[in-house]
Prior knowledge:
Blueprint lengths: L1 E2 L2 E2 L4 E3 L8 H9 L5 E7 H5 L3 H6 L9 E6 L3 H14 L3 E5 L5 H5 L10 H14 L4 E6 L9 H10 L4 E5 L14 H9 L4 E4 L5 H11 L3 E4 L9 H9 L10 H18 L2 H16 L5 H8 L5 H11 L6
Parallel strand pairs: 3-10, 4-5, 5-6, 6-7, 7-8, 8-9, 9-10
Antiparallel strand pairs: 1-2
Bound molecules: flavin mononucleotide (FMN).
GO molecular function, one term: RNA binding
EC number: 1.3.1.-
Cofactor: FMN
Amino acid sequence: MRIGNISLAHGLTLAPMEEHTSLPFRLICKQQGASLVCSERIDAKDVAERDKRAIKLLSTTSAERPAVGQISGNDAVQIGEAARVIEELGFSMVDLNFECPIRRLVGRGEGGALMGQPQRIAELVAAAQQAVSIPVTVKLRTGPKAGADTAVETAQRVEQAGGAAIVLHARSVEQAYLGGPDWQHVTRVKEAVSIPVLGSGGVRTPQDAISFLESSGADGVAIGRGCLGNPWIFQQARTLLFGSREIVEPSPAERGKVLLALVEHEFEFYSAHLAQKRLARTACYFAKFLPDFAEFKKEIHAIKNLAQFRTLVREWFRPVAR
Ligand SMILES: Cc1cc2nc3c(=O)[nH]c(=O)nc-3n(C[C@H](O)[C@H](O)[C@H](O)COP(=O)(O)O)c2cc1C
């Protein structure tokens, strides 16, 4: 698949997830076979103003490329400036988020609020496209709510405005993250445009990713919650995609090793205070497979620092290969 001038080896990509798709997590997904990774959504206003926190969250390195930086907003000047910053930082593409259902954003007329205004989305895509030389992509929902499907019209306008690809989260904005995605919406959008279309929603296993690609006809899939604590889903789905039926599950030692690498990188990347706050949630995603997960959960909440965490991982994910 090609998005603008960027070639991807396959269509198995990492979906953007606020508070999850940090640079350390993106690098792990990349190592595990994701062909494209995406930053979490950042307000275009903050990026345009080069706010310190926003720029930190948009840290990127050559090892993760091709990588996408995602912004949201509803001001063409801010979107253009923020897209320029994303390009300057070294991202390979800029993605405009028109899908976020959180009230704070929708209340400001941004994110998912724009799924009711296809023409406005096209104007914002054009503003970004004129500001940068990297491809501009969009993340859409099926529409504002069930029965109000605007994705096909929006996708066509995005293509006319110069958008390079579309990622469709196959739920409505009103649905937020609940209820089944309807992959038929992805097929409809794919049939309506000639730029690449990726779908997102409901992929929890490598088999789901393959079923999604086969049944929707999409060029790719953006895997969301299915990769939290399970970055191996990318290489497993890739194995299936390239014809093998055998999937290798990571050993407990491998899970522990990757979890430890992720947490250690987060301690370097964020302040120790913030990394510590994120630690229990991150560890629980990786520990879900443990037979005594309930006990692990109690112990992880008592962990006070990285040294204690290392010991805990060695005990629980034995034999840890370090
Ligand atoms: C915790 C969380 C945070 C998310 N943050 C973003 C985001 O920052 N930008 C975005 O475009 N989508 C975001 N999404 C949506 C995902 O990119 C993806 O499309 C969605 O999770 C797909 O559904 P699934 O989790 O059922 O696979 C988020 C989803 C979750 C669960």
